[in-house]
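Attaching the record inline, Q. Sequence:
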Amino acid sequence: MKATVREGLLPSACVPPKTKTVQSVATLYHATARTFNGNDVWPLSSSRTNFTRSDRTIMSELQLEASKRTVLGKKVRQLRRQGITPVVLYGPAIDPRPLQVDERALERTLALSGRTQLIDLKLMPEGLSYASLAREIQVDTLTQQLLHVDFQAVVMDQEISASIPLVFDGEPRPMMQNLGVLVQNLDKVEVSALPMNLPAEIRVDLTSLAEVGQKISVADLPLGPTVRLLSDPEEWVAQIVHARVAETTEVVDEEALESVEAETEETTQPGEEEPAS
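Structure, as predicted:
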């Protein structure tokens, strides 16, 4: 992941989704959004960013009703037009089951659960319930409509792995004194835990960066005894650098981008289209 540079932090309620464009030497980062399929961002409600113990209790009891789906393949477009989202349930000793859920109910549930909080997926009309996690979430890049979701049924006494987003708190003293800028290298880490112990997020205290040159590594993150780290503990999360270093990094990145664009223009003949990526 490419490191990002910030001169300051923005209130989570004021930051729009998909803010990763460098402006001067600052890259705006939206910490209250989940990246689901690599490019598409599904924003969380800003009022639900700081999870408390009572929030976790409520979220562990999230329920979502689903029913058997007989419409498969490209025909699922008909379901989406009716406000129904196709989903699949899979897991240990469970053959993949094509299901369908109400789109609005699914949106509300995912806004609270993300990919790390348990959902009680209830199959109707049988009434069978499966503790599950939303694993693969496909979103239309233009309309942001949910296209498809894969739910993984979990075994409560078996550890599972997940990517946990990092949420940055506070402002380092060197930034307040205009002595340096914050360079952010990671926005999530891989962990393993029992399903009920997966954290919704990991908070990073930036006030611990008291001097230029100091950094926070993955090993410094407050995980707790019930969560096992899978990411490289030596990898750094955030660091304070001199502003001039950050500006130099940005110039190098812009020059590299211009070089790639120039090569693309040279290799594309007039009247020809570039191949789709």
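The domain at 53-154 is CATH 2.40.240.10 (Ribosomal Protein L25; Chain P). Helices lie at 53-60, 76-81, 103-113, 173-176, 243-267.

More tomorrow.
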